[in-house]
Amino acid sequence: MSLIFQLSAVDLLAQSDVRTTACHWEAARAYDRAHGLSHAPKSAARIGRVTIRETALLNLMAAVIVEAAVKRGRVTQHDFDQAGITEQVAKRYRDSAYARAMAMEPRLPAMLEA
pLDDT per position in the chain (114 positions), as tens? Predict the structure, then answer.
C-alpha cells in the first residue's frame, strides 16, 4: 500500500526556513484555493518500528550533523531525536556518522568550533 500526500502551499511555506511576508502567505492561500488544496489540521499516524540498513542510518545521521552544524554550529541529541534516532543508536554510530559527515562537508570542524 502506498500513501501519497499533497501538501498545500500554505503547509509548504510553513515548513520552509525562508523569511516570509504577508504577501507570500496570501499568494500561498490563493494557490491552494485555485488548485483545490486545503490546509488541513495536522494529524499523525504511527507506523510502528522501522528497520533501516546501517548505511542509510549513517547517511541520515551525517545529514543531521551537517545540517545542525550549518544552522547552529553544534549538534545535540535533540537533532537526532527529531530525525527519529534514539540516544542509544546515536551513541553507537556517532563516530562513524561524524566521519561520513566530514566527507560530506570538509569544513565541518571549523563550523563546530565556532
Answer: 444 556 788 888 787 777 888 888 888 888 888 887 776 555 666 667 777 889 999 999 999 999 999 998 999 999 999 988 999 999 999 999 999 999 999 998 888 875
Residue with cell 486545503: 38
What's the half-sphere exposure (Cβ side, CA atoms, 13 Å) at 24? Answer: 11
Reference 63, options 97, 36, 96; nearest CA is: 97
Cα dihedral 15, 18, 22, 25 sign: negative
Query: CA–CA separation, 16 vs 88, rounded Å?
Result: 30
* CB contact set of 60 (below 8 Å; sequence gap of 6+): 52, 83, 85
